[in-house]
Amino acid sequence: MSENIRVLLPEEELAARIAELGDQISKDYEGESVFLVCILKGASFFACELAKRITVPVIIDFMATSSYDGGTVSSGVVKIKKDLDLDPTGQNVIIVEDIIDSGNTLNFLGQLFKDRGAKSVRMVTMLDKPDRREVDVHVDYTGFTIPDQFVVGYGLDYDQKYRNLPYIGVVELD
Ligand code: 5GP
Hints:
By secondary structure, the protein is α/β, with parallel strands linked by helices. It has one domain (3-173): Rossmann fold (3-Layer(aba) Sandwich). Helices cover 22% and strands 33% of the residues. It has three helices and nine strands; from the N terminus they run βαβαβββαββββ. The chain has helices spanning 11-28, 44-52, 104-115; strands at 3-9, 34-40, 58-66, 79-82, 92-100, 120-128, 141-145, 151-152, 168-173. The strands form two sheets. A six-stranded mixed beta sheet has the order 4-3-2-5-6-7, sandwiched between helices. Strand 5, helix 3 and strand 6 form a beta-alpha-beta unit. Helix 1 (11-28) packs across helix 2 (44-52). The chain is globular. The termini are close together. The protein binds guanosine-5'-monophosphate. Guanosine-5'-monophosphate binds at residues 39, 42, 67-68, 74, 97-105, 150-152, 156-158. It is found in: Cytoplasm. Its EC number is 2.4.2.8. One of its GO terms (biological process) is IMP salvage. Keywords: Cytoplasm, Glycosyltransferase, Magnesium, Metal-binding, Nucleotide-binding, Purine salvage, Transferase. One of its GO terms (molecular function) is guanine phosphoribosyltransferase activity.
C-alpha cells in the first residue's frame, strides 16, 4: 500500500493567510507586547512564520502536549510533555496551535494560562476542523476551516512523517 499526498492548501495560500493573521494580531495588540506559546511539534512552522509577521514586540516559547498517543484520534486527556522555559505571568499570551480538532488541547491550555496569571489569553490556530469538536472552545484567530480529514504538512505529521511539506495535504492510501 502506498501513500499519496493530495494538496489541500498550497504554500502561497498559507503564506498569504498567515500574513493577514499577523496584521490582525499586530493591530489588536498595538502598544502592547505578545507572548506566543507554540505547541510543539506541529505548530512550530506556523508559529515561526506568524511571529515574523507580527510587528509588536514578541516573546516566543515552546511547550509540548499529547492527547493522541501515536494514533489519529484524540484520547481526550491532555498531558504536558514539555513545559515553557519562561514565566507567562502578566503577559498577553497567545497560544499558537497547528489545528483544533476535538478542542481538548486548546480547552486545557486556555484554562492553564488563566490559572498561571497571564494578563490575557487568546488562541490562534492555523486550521480548524469544526466537525469533530467535543468541547466548545473560543478561538480568536483561525487560518483556515477545513473538512474532517486527517491532514499533514507545514508541521503536521503522520507517524512523524511529512512535517517538512511546505503545503497542507491529505494522506490518500492506494
Ligand atoms: P484536539 O485536542 O483539538 O483534538 O487536537 C489537537 C491536536 O491534534 C493538534 O495539535 C494536532 O497535533 C492533532 N491533530 C488533530 N487533527 C489532526 C490532523 O488532521 N492531522 C494531524 N497531523 N494532527 C492532527
